[in-house]
Amino acid sequence: MSIGVQPNGYPMSRSAIVGQPDIETLRKLELERRKKLRLEQVRQQSKEFSNKILHKVQNEKEKLKENEKKEKESELRRWQEERIQSLEQQYRHCLDSVRKGQDEKSAKVSEEEQRKAKLLQEKENIRRAKERGRVAMERLKQDKQEEEKAREDEQKQKLYTNTIEKLRSSLVTSRAVLKDITTNNVSNDSSSIEDDVDQISGSQHGPSLARASDRMPAQGFTNYDDSKTRTRAFDDNSDRRNNLETNGKNNLESNDLEARTKSVNFPRTNVYSSTVESSKQYDKHAYEERRSSGGNQNKNQSELRSQNKDQSDGENKETSVVEKLENERQKLIEYKLRLENEERKRHLLEEKLRMEQEAKLNKQLQEDNERMRREREEERRTEEEAMRKKIIDEEERRRKNEQKERREEEEEERERRRNEGQKRERREEWTEDDRRR
């Protein structure tokens, strides 16, 4: 320790050094001590005041931070509530749209089902109508066929009855004429009749009675010319009838065998065969009577010729009736074939119309299905677009919120750093003041 220096650093007076107190020195020392004490008190007060101020500032900052935090929390809570409300509203809107879409879809599905049911009902009605029409046409056709068959049978029966009556009357008349002729003229012309019979049998290459049964001539009659008896068989007419029969049979077999078998054949052969046999018997009886009894040759030839002419006219009429019958039957067969062709054409036309209607209905169903598929595709596309837009909006909002939070954090960090700098500056100022003091 240096001389004249106290432990506290203050210099000592000479009296103190010497050991003798000095009033002035004591007074000065007391003043200095008091000054120092006052300075210490002031410094202590300033420190306390500064500490109070710092504490208040710190409290205020903390309050401000707490208030800001509370405000942020309240704002965040409010934003969250608003966001939740908006999301709930969007969710309700989405539910409403989904419900509406389901209702529309169910309505469309119900409409589609109703349309399909209607189309199926129309198809069923068309099928039933076609079935009823087909049954009615078959019934009508059957009734017409039965009526035509009954009418044809009636006409054929009438023609058959008329022909039989005509043949019977002609046979009766020819029998009476032959009896008159044989009773009067056979005795005078026996030799000429024998010559004529021999000539006829020779021309027929066999016995006249035996060969006459093989041919199928029409009704025969006796013609007297120049005191001779001749038997005419009308071979031409019989040949023509035979040709007509064969041609008609061939045509019937080639055109419609079933119709020919079902049709009622006119009984021609039995009538002609019976007529020919009866005429042969009449000729034979007349020939025998002429040979046995003889007769008067000077009968009125004009009457005989007229009778023979009537008989030939009757045969011609019979031939014409047969030809007419063949023609009528041919016409009936042709008419039946034409009806069958028309019925076949009608069936083909109905089948074509049915196929066209089915194709039209199938095309309409395909168009409806395609349209509904396009509508569903469009709805799905719009829903996807809406969902994509919502997702994009959500991402944009989230990004904005993140940016906002990042900016707030940066501002808080800057504020904290600024406060720390201010504190550091104040602390440095205080240390500098303390150093200065």
Automatic annotation (TrEMBL):
It comes from the Eukaryota. Residues 225-243, 280-292, 306-329, 360-407, 414-437 have a biased composition (Basic and acidic residues). Residues 181-191, 244-254, 262-279, 293-305 have a biased composition (Polar residues). Residues 58-78, 98-157, 181-329, 360-437 are annotated as: Disordered. This is Uncharacterized protein. The lineage of its organism: Eukaryota, Metazoa, Ecdysozoa, Arthropoda, Hexapoda.
